[in-house]
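Request: Show me your protein:
***
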Amino acid sequence: MIKKVLIANRGEIAVRIIRACREMGIETVAVYSEADRDALHTQLADEAVCIGPAPSSESYLSMENIISATIVTGADAIHPGFGFLSENSRFAELCEQCNITFIGPPSTVIASLGNKQAAKKIQWQMQGFRSFLVAKNPIYTVEEGMKEAETIGYPVIIKAALGGGGKGMRVADAPADFEESFRTAQKETQMAFGDSTMYVEHFVRHPRHIEFQIMADKFGNVIHLGERDCSIQRNHQKMIEESPCEVISDELRARMGEAAVKAAKAAGYENAGTIEFLLDKEGRFYFMEMNTRIQVEHPVTEWVTGVDLVKEQIRIASGLPTIL
């Protein structure tokens, strides 16, 4: 069982992890930037280590500083929380190389699912449920994109393969719209993420955005803990999460949950994660992406199910089977 956890984060999620560890009898180490010296998470943890100046790039995003703090304090595990390095496959790989337990999925899984186009390709190749009509290869030029769009059928949405937060996204309703939409999306992608890889998929108008909470242990056991409806958004950022979703039937909920579990198994997933679907007006659902971390919205599922997801993360990372 894990004995000491370093929390590579700050604020609410760091406090949340400290609480779970304390209830499990596990020691905690907080890290902080110079600006967060007196923050609540530094006061609640058993130990606290400064990892750099105020800019995140020099503290909470410094892999070397965090790994060093882990070794110096004798922590045997790192919980990344959400944001910062939580979905960084290189950071997870460094933990593995240093024999530090990363409380999350293996680095190879994070890498394969972090690229959204590649993640959809995994599902398209390995699963029997409906994914988006999506380009099977990464796209770098207008000509490549238009060829894929003709195969998929309009309207299409052009997206950044390594993007997020609504950046690098444009809709093309017809071939005449494609070139301008593609160039604009690709330019934004390069500026925001330092990468120009794009992909194209069928565009679903006015969908519901439904996400399923997944928990998977190291023994191949994968379950879901129901859904969260996160359709109310602003600028592609979720504002309200509701569980259960009021518009899906028990039969549809069962099918979507089964599809989510299959998707996680196909990816060889471990620990907590979220499978996201879009649901159209005809009741057809499409795999959108998988988030390889605990999410900001995880308390909604905890309130509905009574399950402490952070404790389950720690148990699974310790090599124990899920108790769910």
In short: The chain has a mean pLDDT of 91.
